[in-house]
Amino acid sequence: MTVKEIFETMEYGPAPESAGTALEWIAGFGGRFGHFIDGAFTKPAKGFDSRNPATGEVLAKISQASAKDVATATKAARAAQPGWAGLGGHGRARHLYALARALQKHSRLFSVLETLDNGKPIRESRDIDIPLAQRHFYYHAGMAQLMEAELPDRQALGVCGQIIPWNFPLLMLAWKVAPALAMGNTVVLKPAEYTSLTALLFADICAQVGLPKGVVNIVTGDGAVGEMIVDAEVDKIAFTGSTSVGRKIREATAGLGKALTLELGGKSPYIVFDDADLDSAVEGLVDAIWFNQGQVCCAGSRLLVHEPVSERFFAKLRARMDKLRIGDPLDKAIDVGAVVDPVQLEAITRMVKANTAGKTHVAATPMPVEGCYYPPTLITGLHTSDTLMQEEIFGPVLVATTFRTPDEAVALANNTRYGLAATLWTENVNLALDVAPKLAAGVIWVNATNLFDAAAGFGGVRESGFGREGGWEGLQAYMRPKGIRKALKSPTAFEGNGGPVDAVNRTAKLYVGGKQVRPDSGYSRNVWGKSGALLGAVGLANRKDVRNAVEAAHAAKGWAKMTGHARAQVLYFIAENLAARADEFAARLNGLQGTRNGKAEVDTAISRLFTYAAWADKLDGAAKGVPMRGVALAMREPVGVIGALCPDEAPLLGLISLMAPAIAMGNRVILCASQTFPLAATDFIQVLETSDVPGGVVNILTGDHSDVAGTLAAHMDVDAVWSFAGANLSTEIEHGAAGNLKRTWMNDGFATDWSKAEGRAFLDAATEIKTIWVPYGE
Amino acid sequence: MLISKTETHLPQVTEPRNPGMALDLDWVRNVQANTSAIERRCKTLPGRRSVKKIHQAAWLCRAVSLIDLTTLSGDDTAGRVRRLCAKARQPVRVDLLDQLGLADLKVGAVCVYHEMIAPAVAALQGTGIPVAAVSTGFPAGLSPFHLRLKEVEESVTAGAAEIDIVISRRHVLEGRWQALYDEMQQMRAASGDAHVKAILATGELGTLRNVARASVVCMMAGADFIKTSTGKESVNATLPVSLTMIRAIRDYHERTGYRVGYKPAGGISKAKDALTYLALMKDELGDRWLRPDLFRFGASSLLGDIERQLEHYVTGAYSASYRHPMG
To answer: Do B34 and A427 touch (CB under 8 A)?
Structure first.
């Protein structure tokens, strides 16, 4: 081609980034990699090829870790952990700072290697992935520095097993490793088998900057190695990947007491209102669904357009799609690169082929002849019942429908099992700030999409998983309260054969939806005092009572919308009415437990109600200092409907210690009263009835915890289960919780000092942080 | 004069002129421009498009062909303008153009004040390069309206094939869209066959939303081109302003079928900037907008940087400005 010809055609031409230095780095290892364990690379072992998806060429041979490798790595991490934590915040900060600097110094090498291995355009690895990874290490160097001053009662969890996906290989490593190291943990990390190379380069860097041996261990391999890490002697598992694998990990770790965070799939809505800047919203979709070939867990993959502008919007979108440039990921002027592997390409192709609904537009743009590519695709006119509107495609395929009103937009957006992210476009600040909190998602972008920063929490709700990455909230996943936990010794129920103490026969009932109801089972159980007197009888709740209570709790959703001040008034009123009957409750507690601590327990319970009445309007969110003109708001939202198994020790105080923080934050609760001493809870129903608590906000069941725990845990419409039951039910509950990936908070058989059990830990469990990004400027 | 005008009149033109349309206030009021989203698009654009080697050379030659080589100084003289016109005819050294195979490369137009039209027209006789005149009380546009129209007519009579008019910024700032429309329409009428570039003076319009609305109103009133700036405002052409205006052009084309041209002016002085602008036009509007009848750079120092880059392409060595004839 001559200058004169190009002068006429004005084509872009190739602009390739050189792969030379990255290939030299691979060659420096002889093209074969072992694992990085205890500060050194192991001898390369039997394994698999890592290929460049753009060409199919083999880049390197990667070792498949054996159970012994995982055990050695875990042992190295365990041995290194006390020393690493013992370095202190400043000592760790220096290392994290060195890692950040090293990532920056070798940024082009990381970028090119990432693109070679993953197929993403070099622009993305160079301008987004690698800079964000650096930012994560800088940010968490700061967190290490501040830990002792700002988090004085917290300590590291220990050894963290981390399993990351192939879509953002180095960035996901940074998200996992940086906060773990900052808080004094050591890690065993497994990159995805398609994309191990930048993790291995990172390991090389760790050795170069003098990170102590064993602090970072990297083992490579497929899902089987991931399972080994889950089963290994680790204190925590952090996983990013598919919902189905996340569910398996939840089941595998059930009851083991390992901390767990899961960042899973999504089918995130992208809502365009009729007053939006349509051209900018179209451009936003390029960054939403054609970023990284759509292989993004939070990709705006479900387009919802306001009917008045839908045809115009779709026309603009099709025109924009036809301008996308697809091809060699190392070309600096490419918009869409290669899909990570032929297996993924096949999966995308299969899903789209199976769809016959709607109208499909495939970008009219030249496609590479060879390599692993899928064309940008838009399918309009789909409905919620179409498979592609519900299932994650994880490819450059956008599905779309239309809506009539903001309420309908919210309803359509929330009609999904997922809840990772959502995007909305409108020039109306009232509409934006009204809709954002209503969307069931952990991250909301207003007039923007796919914005990320280390200071802003990222993570989902529903089946998109739990836990946050980034910000102060992200640190929660890598630390625990200081101190040694004691085993729980739960009191046993008294036996007896004495006569009733009540002058007139009383019937303690269940409390569901604001009404006292008889148990569905029609069975009751006697409750005896220490001396053998018959104190009363309580109903035995079964699965139907759980079902009814959950329905009642959902019907009371208005509670979440009440102001904190109004909820505080209700909590104070409960305290007031409990205080008026303090003597009666003290006597009841003494009678039930055969002790003399009743008055103290009632007093503490009243104080606890005051504590959460105080907190109801004070658990503030935050405006995060993200590097842009705009704010990232961290809003505290109630978790939803919480089922709580109350402790046997402190039968009144324990129940109130769980109920009060939950309802103060706007949740509705199903409380399963102390199994051993249930009558304080049934007496408390009358206090609730006289305290303006809306029906359904608090529901109380009695009976055997083991009869209801499984139903609660498996219930798809329960958002969290807390267990402080006398029996350790963690395994059953966490296994059941895998169904909808609900949050769990288990005592794991350890004791709680209820006289002191209040504050942040309870409020954190009762809330979820939603990050709302609002760029601004006119 | 009429005959010479048709000779020099935009030889490249193949588009029907934008006839304008009735003022559609619903459209104007519904125009949206989200500043932060527009800025993000512009910030990432240079990283998304890269033009290298032979393609870069060709693109830079294309940029030369789109330049409105401009002098708008109080001390302009006929001699100064003749030197500029000589540069317009031979914008890049002969030996370099021979190597590039584009011996006939010329700039898009020469842009001067009214008094300099005559020497410019004379100096460009037979080249096909049109003379553009800034008009209507440039740069502030605050002289009596009838005199502004008269100025347009006289400039056309003097041989200007293109008239760069300035709009009354106050009409935009006061939201008086009908007044802006009427003003623009009369200026277009006064220009006759000469093409009209409407200078919005975007640096003085306050917001991108105003820029977008003013763009739409001027196109409705029959502007052939919309242009960012006089070069005299403190902020001239920027990428966000450009993106806003070219999206308005795209919208106008989608709805009416007529193509309106775009001219960023002031502040574009580097070859790399020119490439970014070309990529922006190519991606947002399409290749059709990479021709002189629909795209111009209003620039004076840009050419010098492009000449150095072209010499670098030809020789492989970085160049120096004194190796290229000044304009």
So the answer is: yes
The residues of A that are catalytic are 263, 297
Closest-CA residue in chain A for B286?
A323
The CATH topology of domain B19-316 is TIM Barrel (3.20.20)
- pLDDT at residue A503 above 70? yes
Burial letters A220-230, b for 16+ CB under 10 A, else e = bbbeebbbbbb
The beta strand positions in A404-523, using DSSP E, are 421-425, 443-446, 465-466, 479-481, 510-512, 515-517
A230 Cβ neighbours under 8 A, 6+ residues apart: A161, A163, A237, A249, A252, A253
**Do A778 and B207 lie within an 8 Å CB cutoff?**
yes
Taking the CA of residue A6 and the nearest CA in chain B, the distance in Å comes to 6
List all residues 6 or more positions away from B265 whose beta carbon is below 8 Å from its beta carbon: B68, B70, B199, B227, B228, B229, B230, B231, B236, B237, B297, B298, B299
Q: What is the pTM of this model?
A: 0.96
Contact in structure between A103 and A137 (CB atoms under 8 Å): yes
| Ramachandran area for residue A165 (φ above 0: left; ψ -120 to 50: alpha; else beta) | beta
Using an 8 Å CB-CB cutoff, list chain A residues near B311: none
C-alpha distances out from residue B137 to A222, B78, B119, B142, B144, Å: 73, 21, 21, 6, 8
Closest CA to A397 of A325, A332, A364, A349: A349
C-alpha distance from A336 to closest chain B C-alpha (Å): 11
Residue with the two structure tokens 């002027």 = A333
Cβ–Cβ contact B62 with A under 8 A: yes
Distance from C-alpha of A311 to C-alpha of A102, rounded to nearest angstrom: 49
**Dihedral (Cα; B251, B252, B255, B258), 10-degree rounding:** -130
In tens, the pLDDT along A315-343 reads 999 999 999 999 999 999 999 999 999 99
- Best residue in B12, B27, B32, B34 to probe A by mutation, most A CBs within 10 Å? B34
pLDDT in tens, A458-489: 999 999 999 999 999 999 999 999 999 999 99
Nearest to A55 by CA among A477, A310, A372, A304: A372
Beta bridge partners of A263: A240, A465
**A776 in B contact zone (CB under 8 Å):** yes
Omega before B264 cis (within 30°)?
A: no
Provide the pLDDT confidence category of residue B4 given band limits of 50, 70 and 90. Answer: very low
Tell me whether B26 touches chain A (CB under 8 Å). Answer: no
Is A10 in contact with B247 (Cβ distance < 8 A)?
Answer: no
Chain A residue numbers with beta carbons less than 8 Å from the beta carbon of B208 are 778
Of A4, A283, A335, the CB nearest to B102: A4
List, for residues B241-290, the tens digit of each pLDDT value. 999 999 999 999 999 999 999 999 999 999 999 999 999 999 999 999 99
Asked if pLDDT for residue B9 goes beyond 50, the answer is no
Q: A238: helix, coil or strand?
A: strand
Q: In Å, how far is A107's CA from the nearest CA of chain B?
A: 16
CB A306 within 8 A of CB A270: no
C-beta atoms surrounding A321 within 10 Å:
25
- The widest CA-to-CA distance across chain B, in whole angstroms, is 56
